[in-house]
Each structure stands twice: as structure tokens, then as C-alpha cells.
Design goal:
The complex is a heterodimer of chains A (549) and B (419). With 549 residues, chain A is α/β, with parallel strands linked by helices. Chain A has one domain: TIM Barrel (Alpha-Beta Barrel). In chain A, strands 1, 2, 3, 4, 5, 21, 22, 23 and 24 form a nine-stranded mixed beta sheet that branches. In chain A, strand 1 and strand 2 form a beta hairpin. The relative contact order of chain A is 0.17. Chain B is of the alpha/beta class. Chain B has two domains: 191 residues, Rossmann fold (3-Layer(aba) Sandwich), CATH 3.40.50; 167 residues, Dimethylsulfoxide Reductase, domain 2 (3-Layer(aba) Sandwich). Chain B has 13 helices and 20 strands. In chain B, the strands form four sheets. In chain B, strands 5-4-18-17-16-6-7-14-15 form a nine-stranded mixed beta sheet, covered by helices on one side. Chain B is globular, with a radius of gyration of 23 Å. Classes of the chains: A alpha/beta (549), B alpha/beta (419). The interface between A and B is large, with 63 and 66 residues. Strand 18 of chain A pairs parallel with strand 8 of chain B.
Chain lengths: 549, 419
């Protein structure tokens, strides 16, 4: 076969993983990978005057899960308002698919819109193991992005029993077995113990040392066990943690306590903005972003994505079901709750963040504070917890807020200031992100945190996923309409139009475990599961395994 | 002919409970026994024999001829086509049918019954509080059956989820209180710890009384029947984990269209004082799968119209409510659930049927391609009533695959290009 080559000529390349900061240089592509050079006469794409970055990597999103599908079902009104006819692809492509948008777009539309934004890799951050087969079906229908799933374990019945029995090795083996059985990529913890508490009538846990549902197990023990498991299994991504007390005033104490509990151990704390509130329940809210980010800045083992709130419609989808009940009661909006046997829960409430609302304005400010006070962009990366804090389509507007102080200050003048007194943002933060820092928080950083050696950079051997932007004064416009997007070496977006829609590749891990686990696990399934042990693992998994770190 | 063999961990799609622990005995290419025994499962599997014909205009044809004719008939009617996605297909086959519908700008209909559709719409207005089936077994200490006795249509429901011990209900049935509600001729199960009988005229009022009881609203003097309903609600409220079970595809008379919303509202309200879920029983096949695949591909769970080039939601005007409006129809799966009126109308329309027993369709077809049945002859995934996906382990593999046939038709409609 003749090699397929492409030389991207003369762009300003931002490849921070390889120390390249806006240098004018060519990027060479052969057979889907970046190469050091190409023979003369290779086909070229003129990128002169443009900005070249690796394809975007979304470390935390909700777009391909049973929970997302429950959320889709809840919003026919949003879908009707955002029809998505099939894009006109190149003539040698199969016809594209139509769909609908809104806060939770249909699968094909999700893939097309990610690509249209220059994102080529995305992970669904919360999948109940029992529904993993469903997530893979959705990913099969989500083109243009490579991706995978994080597997929910922080409220798992079998895991809680092992922790209670002091069986740490078995807990680790079980985590490995779950990852293999589900085709998962990372261990996810959501409100450790809190979902089990919700299901067992305790309603929720309030802190790291509460007993979970009357057991001799605490959220702290869940965190320690699963962080230990992820590190012992040398997973490419450390344990991915949604802390206890999400959205509750005063929760910064719990967040810092969780970080301290895992001190010295690698751990990723997700959508940190939702966990940085000062004040006390019933007595008001303040920003605690400065305290929390100070801890992050000084602890290299901690990483985080921000979970920025953007004004406009959102859809809250989470395994943190008790939080969704409170949100339903306080907002009066539609509410879906699905309890998932032996594993977790799921809560869904459609929401809108309004700049006239004091709490939403505080949340917006806290997210920006985390970004602007971060000392290490490699460990504090971009997310909106799509669609919880806002759609991934709002990333360009968020990037503009980070890069352009004038825009940010103007926006700040429009929001409800009631709870912002004394916050760092209100006091004035002058920092403006550079293009290189944006390249770090949207691709190089997430790829490194995920242990994806072939993503997020443009060095030889990397997957040839590249995004090329026109240089524009309007940063939001620049990042919302890439001129070209290249996936696996092929141009899929040309002049801002989607022209190709290749299937995404699945990324998963396959850690080893001791088979001695299986007889006991089988007894547990036979006793309590409504699905046969033999039918639980997802067979014929597509995609490739990413090796241990 | 192959010798006797046993296939284990087989998923049965005889009803929405989708038991996946069956052992199926096969001898000489026929299913001879299933275990555990279940009359509905036995009826679903039968002996596993299905016809193996391909017809064009009622006469035998080659596959190539049939696919070419199907593509011609459907393409000629693009923009005015209806695609019916039946329940006896794997999700992969259903997805192929949806891809065809998108390409043809067709209107899509499914085996979603009217009561099930009413429930889907109510859940879109309110959300819902639900749980997977295993949560009933593991947690429910009070279970209320609303106008349904699972015994006949879901024979293993009691043994699997009520009688069996669970993580939080170690005594099984003895650790649960069962409330049996009869509405009109729709009887609750026998042997309830509390039994309640309502006329159809009182049903919605009773649901309102129960919700008011749960919310703690003062009710004043109530007639005897409604007082009983309030007592049932009080029992639910005292539960640690209450489950309300109802049926979305009842066999008998059509339920009150407000029933589903009333039950959803009651289950949601119970989550104030305690924890509760509404469990919706469905008939057999992969009907949840069709609704879920439609949802992830279009955003809507049923009644999708692609005629404008994107999905539109038309639950008030389902395609097969007006079958005569279609210029051509693709039936993916069997047509057995279509009403006689719809079948009669389809007999006057060019119809392509690709699915199990297509050649035995009770109306004239332009093309019929027999395939195997999902879970009996064809693998893949199907969904349980609680939206949990299960693998299919076909005990009799080898029949023509519906998913493959629909993908072949899709490729033909795409001009022969295959991804």
C-alpha cells in the first residue's frame, strides 16, 4: 500500500508536550501518525498564518451512557429546538446521519460537533458497570472521536463488602476485573458511599468518616482502597474522584480532606468548581477556590479538571443521585432517578445557570478563579463537566474568558455580585492564558493525565489528530470554528465544514487480576444480581488496550 | 444434524424481564427443553424452527434479487416511507433499520403500545423514579402491584424478585409486604398482605389520594375504597424501600391514560419520606432496545419523522396510525403485533419485510426475507424492561441474520457502498 502522507505547511505550532510554543514549522503525517519528516513532493496543506495544535482531548464529559440516554429522553423540547440535519460529507464518504442537539445531543451529532470544535478524543466519565454494554453501543454511533468510559465503583456492594472485611487485595482484583469486564479506561468514584446511603435510606453521607449504610466502611476507606488499586494496577489514569458533598456550601473542607486522605498518592479530582464552596448549609455561600487551588498547586500528585459553569441551559446528569433529589426539590424541575442494583445510582435534572442568580454567578466565578490561580496548567485542565456545567459547545467562550481579561471583566460586571464580595475574581485577576497554556489545558494536559502517549502532542509516533485554527482577534470565534481538523491523518473538517466522519477508536485498559477472586464473586452474583455472571462481561470489545503506566 | 447439547446462560426475550439464566436443550437442530421451566419462555423459543424463504412479488427469489427490489421500492418512495422497527430484533438490527429510515427520510414506528407511549410521554413531562429489577429483590420491603398480576405474563417475576433473598431483604418474600391492587378487570396478584379493589372510574382519584397521603396533605372523610387506598399509601410511606409495579403492555382493556402519570407522580412523591421506585413491566422482545436506540440516535424514544431531513417527534401522529399515507413500508422484524386494520392497509401498499417469518406475513409483500429471531438464532444485544442491556446467546445459530440483511439493504440504498 502506498503510504498516505500530508505535510501541514508553515503554521504556528503549539505543541507544549514537545516544548514547541508557536514556532513556525511543518507538521508531517504518514499513515495516520506524526512523523519527523516526509519526502519532497508529499501532499501539502497550507497552514501559513494559522495556529496548529494537537486535537482536543476531553478528560471529563457525559455523552455516551445509559444516564445520558435517560437525559436525552427527558428533553424533547430541546431537541425540537435544535434540529441537526446530516452534514454533507465528501462524495466518497457514506452519507452522514441526522440528529438533534440541545444540552444532550444525539450520538452522531455529538461526534460531529466535537469534531467541529477540534476535539478528537473524549471520555465518558460515569458508566455503571451493568450498563457498560450500552455505552459501547453509543460510542459505536459517536463518530470522529476516540474515546472510552470511566467505570463507577465508589458505591459498589461487592467492593464495600471487601473493604469491610479488610480484603484489600481482593478489592483491587475486583476493580481490575470490573475494568476488563466493562471495557473501561479508569476507575471512577462518585460521592463515595453517598449513593449507597441514598439507596439504603440514610439519604447521604456528610463527610469522610461517616459509616456507609450502617456498615463499618467510610468514604475515606473507599477513596483509599480505590486510589490504591488504581496505582497498584498502574492504570494510565489515576482514580477519578467526584468528592462527597457536591454543591453543598462549605464543601471545600470535604474536598481538602479528600485530597489530604490521599496525600502522596496520584489522584484526579474532577469538576473541582462544584467542590470549592465556603460558607455553611443554610447560611450562605462563599468562594473557597483560593484555598483549594493552593493545595493543588503545592501537591504534584493531585490533578483536576475545573467543571466550569457557563451561563445558559445545562443538564445535570450524575451518579450522585442524592444531590439530584435536592436539586429537584429546590428547582421544582423534572427529575429522573434510576437506582442501579449493587453498583450505583443515577439522577437527572435539567437546569439553567442564569447570570442574574447569585449562586450561579458564584459558581461561574469560582471556576474562573481555579483556572486563573492555577500554578500548573498540566494539572488543572479544562472541562465544563459537559453537560452539567454547560455544553462542550461553550468551550470556545470559556477559552475566551481565560485569554481575554477585557471580555472577562466586562462579563463580570453583568453577573449577580451578591456572593462575590471578597472573591479573588472580584478583587481582580489580571492573568490571561496564552495560546500555549490553552493547548495544555485542552489537549496536552488531559492526554498526559490520561496516560495517552499518542494523544495531545505532535511528536513522531503521535496519532495524527490535529486542529488548525485561523488566527482571530475574537478568541471565541477562533476556537468555535477550526479551519481544519485532521483525524488519524485525514482531513475531516475543511474550511469549517465536516467532510468526513470516521468511526472513533475505543480506548480501554486490561489490568491483570488474580483468578482466585472469581469463585467468591460468582457466589455474590448468584445470590444478588439479576444478571448472570457469565453474561455480565462485555464480550467482543472493540478498540485497543492502553498499556499500564 | 448435530447431537444433543445444552446452551447455558441464554437470554429469553419471552417477556420484558429477559431472564438470562436459561439452559436450553437442543437436539437435532430443534429446541427440546428450557430450564428453569416457564410457559412464556417455552412459547417464545418454541422448537426454534423458522421458515427460510426469500420472495419477491410472492415468488421465490435470490437474495440479490430481493435486496435490489427492496432498495428500488423503498428508494422510489423516499420521503414518503414508513419504517416499522419490530421487537424481535437485536439492537444492532434495529440500528440498521434506523439508518435506513434516516437515509429514506422515513417515518419510524415501533411496537411501543399505547399505554407504554403514554408512560413515555408522562416521564418526559415529569421525569421518573425507577430502579433496575435487581433493586426490587435486594431492597424492596413493600411492593405494590397496580392492576397487574405478573404470574401469567411474567411467570418468573415472583421467584426472581419477590421470593428471593436480597442484600437488604435477607428473608425474601417473608421480609416484604405485598399490596395487590385490582383495577376493574385488571387483577393484582393473589396472596397480597393488603388487597385493594378499585373501579376504573375511581382509579385516578385513588392515585391522587395516595399521593396526597404521601405528601401529608389532610384528606378529611373518605369513602371506604379511597380510605383503603390511603392505607396502602401509608404502608408505602412506611417502607424502607417501596416499589410500585405496573404493566405497560397490558393484555386486556386499555388503561386510563392518566394512570402512568399518576403512578410516576406517586413514586416520585414517595422519595420525600422514604425511597421508592416505579417498575414498568413490558411485553416480550427487544422493544426497550428499539426505544433506546431511537433515543440515542435521534433524541426521541418513538414516533420519529425524518421527512424534513432531521428527526422530528410526532407522538400524537404515529406513522402506523395512518398506514395509508405511506408510499412504501419497510417492516424490520415481524408484523405480528400490527393490528388487523394496519395489516389490511399495508396489504394495499408496497411492503418490504425483513425479519423472522417474513414470508408468512398475513398480507401481500413486495419483498419478504426470512431471518432468524434475536436471541434464538441471532446474537447481539437486547434490552430488559429496565433498560439493562443483555447479550444474546443464540442456541440455534446459523439462520439468516436480520442485522446482516438490513445492513445489506442499507448498503444497497447507499449505492452499494459498505463502510
Amino acid at each position: 500500500m502506498k503510504p498516505v502522507r500530508l505535510r501541514l505547511v508553515g503554521g504556528a505550532v503549539h505543541d507544549p508536550a514537545n516544548g514547541v510554543d508557536g514556532e513556525i514549522r511543518d507538521v508531517c503525517i504518514e499513515d495516520g501518525r506524526i512523523v519527523a519528516s516526509l519526502p519532497d513532493g508529499a501532499p501539502t496543506l497550507d497552514a501559513r498564518g494559522m495556529v496548529v495544535m494537537p486535537g482536543g482531548v476531553d478528560i471529563h464529559s457525559h455523552f455516551a451512557s445509559s444516564s445520558c440516554n435517560h437525559a436525552r429522553r427527558l428533553i424533547p423540547d430541546e431537541h425540537a429546538a435544535d434540529p441537526a440535519p446530516a452534514p454533507a460529507l465528501a462524495e466518497d464518504e457514506l452519507p452522514a446521519r441526522s440528529g438533534t442537539g440541545g444540552t444532550v445531543p444525539s450520538t452522531f451529532t455529538t461526534g460531529y460537533r466535537y469534531a467541529g470544535l477540534g476535539y478528537t478524543t473524549a471520555f465518558d466519565a460515569a458508566v455503571a458497570p451493568l450498563t457498560a454494554r450500552h455505552s459501547h453501543s453509543e460510542l459505536d454511533d459517536t463518530p470522529c472521536v476516540d474515546g472510552g468510559i470511566y467505570v463507577l465503583m465508589g458505591n459498589d456492594e461487592y467492593l464495600l463488602r471487601q473493604i469491610e472485611a479488610g480484603e484489600q487485595d481482593r478489592a483491587r482484583d475486583y476493580a481490575a476485573w470490573l475494568l476488563r469486564s466493562t471495557g473501561g479506561y479508569a476507575i471512577k468514584i462518585v460521592n463515595p458511599g453517598g449513593v449507597e446511603a441514598w439507596k439504603s435510606g440514610q439519604r447521604n453521607v456528610t463527610g469522610l468518616d461517616d459509616a456507609i449504610g450502617g456498615r463499618k466502611v467510610t468514604p475515606r476507606a473507599v477513596l483509599e482502597t480505590l486510589a490504591g488499586a488504581a496505582n497498584a494496577l498502574q492504570l494510565p489514569h489515576p482514580v477519578h474522584i467526584h468528592c462527597n458533598n457536591l454543591g453543598i456550601p462549605g464543601n471545600a473542607g470535604t474536598t481538602l480532606g479528600s485530597m489530604q486522605a490521599l496525600s502522596g498518592r496520584r489522584a484526579h479530582f474532577t469538576h473541582l468548581q462544584f467542590h470549592c464552596y465556603g460558607g455553611q448549609p443554610g447560611q450562605g455561600w462563599t468562594s473557597a477556590a483560593a484555598q483549594v487551588i493552593e493545595y493543588v498547586n503545592s501537591h504534584a500528585e493531585v490533578s483536576t479538571d475545573v467543571g466550569q459553569v457557563m451561563f445558559g441551559p445545562a443538564m445535570t446528569i450524575t451518579a450522585d443521585a442524592p444531590v439530584e433529589y435536592l436539586l429537584h426539590k429546590s428547582s421544582g424541575r423534572r427529575w429522573t432517578n434510576i437506582d442501579i442494583e449493587l453498583e450505583t445510582g443515577c439522577g437527572i435534572v435539567p437546569l439553567a445557570y442564569k447570570d442574574k442568580a447569585a449562586v450561579a454567578s458564584l459558581q461561574w466565578a469560582i471556576g474562573l478563579e481555579l483556572f486563573l490561580l492555577s500554578a500548573d496548567p498540566w494539572r488543572v485542565v479544562l472541562s465544563t463537566d459537559h453537560p452539567n456545567g454547560g455544553s462542550f459547545l461553550s468551550y470556545p467562550a470559556l477559552i475566551q474568558l481565560l485569554m481575554d481579561r477585557a471580555v472577562r471583566d466586562e462579563r463580570l460586571m453583568q453577573v449577580n455580585p451578591k456572593l462575590l464580595a471578597g472573591s479573588a475574581l472580584a478583587d481582580g485577576l489580571a492573568r490571561e492564558y496564552t495560546l500555549n497554556e490553552i493547548a495544555i489545558i485542552t489537549r496536552a494536559g488531559p492526554a498526559r493525565l490520561l496516560g495517552l502517549g499518542r494523544k495531545g502532542h505532535l511528536g513522531p509516533g503521535a496519532d495524527a489528530d490535529v486542529t488548525i485554527y485561523n488566527r482571530e482577534a475574537d478568541i471565541a470565534k477562533m476556537f468555535s470554528t477550526p479551519r481544519y481538523v485532521i483525524k488519524d491523518g485525514r482531513v475531516i473538517v475543511e474550511e469549517g465544514q465536516l467532510r468526513r466522519a470516521p468511526a472513533g477508536r475505543r480506548l480501554r485498559v486490561a489490568p491483570e487480576y488474580d483468578d482466585a477472586l472469581l469463585p467468591d464473586l460468582r457466589r455474590h452474583f448468584d445470590a444478588y444480581s439479576s444478571v448472570s455472571f457469565a453474561n455480565y462481561p462485555v464480550q467482543d470489545l472493540p478498540g485497543e488496550t492502553v498499556p499500564a503506566g | 444434524m448435530t447431537g444433543p447439547r445444552t446452551v447455558a446462560s441464554v437470554t429469553c426475550l419471552g417477556c420484558g424481564c429477559a431472564c438470562d439464566d436459561l439452559e436450553v436443550q437442543v437436539r437435532e437442530g430443534r429446541i427440546v427443553d428450557i430450564s428453569p421451566s416457564c410457559p412464556v419462555g417455552r412459547g417464545w423459543f418454541g422448537d426454534g424452527s423458522v421458515p427460510d424463504a426469500i420472495t419477491r412479488g410472492g415468488s421465490a427469489a435470490t437474495l440479490d434479487q430481493a435486496i435490489a427490489e427492496a432498495a428500488r421500492v423503498l428508494a422510489a418512495a423516499a420521503g414518503r416511507t414508513t419504517v416499522y422497527v419490530g421487537p424481535d430484533l437485536s439492537t444492532r438490527a434495529q440500528c440498521a433499520a434506523l439508518a435506513i429510515a434516516d437515509l429514506l427520510r422515513a417515518r419510524v414506528d415501533t411496537a411501543t403500545s399505547r399505554p407504554a407511549a403514554t408512560g413515555l410521554l408522562a416521564a418526559q413531562r415529569r421525569g421518573r423514579a425507577a430502579a433496575t429489577l435487581g433493586e426490587i429483590r435486594n431492597r424492596a420491603d413493600v411492593v405494590l402491584f397496580w392492576a397487574v398480576d405478573p404470574g401469567a405474563r411474567h411467570p418468573r417475576f415472583f421467584s426472581r424478585f419477590i421470593d428471593a433473598a436480597g442484600t437488604h431483604v435477607p428473608a425474601g418474600r417473608a421480609g416484604r409486604r405485598v399490596v395487590s391492587v385490582t383495577v376493574g378487570s385488571d387483577r393484582g396478584p393473589p396472596g397480597g398482605d393488603l388487597e385493594l379493589t378499585l373501579s376504573t372510574a375511581e382509579e385516578i382519584t385513588a392515585l391522587s389520594v395516595m399521593r396526597a397521603t404521601v405528601l401529608g396533605h389532610p384528606l378529611g372523610e373518605l369513602p371506604a375504597d379511597l380510605q383503603q387506598a390511603a392505607s396502602a399509601a401509608a404502608l408505602l410511606k412506611e417502607a424502607k424501600y417501596a416499589v410500585i409495579v405496573h404493566e405497560a403492555e397490558p393484555g386486556g382493556e386499555q388503561p386510563d391514560p392518566l394512570r402512568a402519570e399518576g403512578l410516576i407522580a406517586l413514586a416520585q412523591a414517595l422519595n420525600g419520606p422514604t425511597r421508592a421506585a416505579l417498575s414498568t413491566l413490558r411485553a416480550g422482545g427487544n422493544r426497550s432496545g428499539a426505544e433506546l436506540a431511537l433515543t440515542w440516535q435521534t433524541g426521541y424514544p418513538m414516533a420519529v419523522d425524518f421527512s424534513k431531513g432531521f428527526p422530528r417527534y410526532t407522538p400524537e401522529r404515529r406513522a402506523l396510525d395512518r398506514p395509508a399515507e405511506a408510499a412504501a413500508v419497510l417492516v424490520a422484524g415481524t408484523s405480528t403485533e400490527l393490528s388487523p386494520e394496519v395489516a389490511a392497509a399495508l396489504g394495499r401498499t408496497p411492503v418490504v419485510v425483513i425479519g423472522p417469518r417474513a414470508s408468512q406475513t398475513p398480507f401481500a409483500t413486495r419483498v419478504a426475507i426470512d431471518t432468524g429471531v434475536a436471541g434464538i438464532h441471532e446474537g447481539g444485544t437486547a434490552y430488559r424492561t429496565d433498560d439493562i442491556p443483555l447479550p444474546l446467546r443464540p442456541p440455534l445459530p446459523g439462520a439468516r441474520s436480520a442485522a446482516e440483511m438490513l445492513h445489506t439493504l442499507l448498503a444497497a440504498l447507499q449505492g452499494g457502498r459498505k463502510r
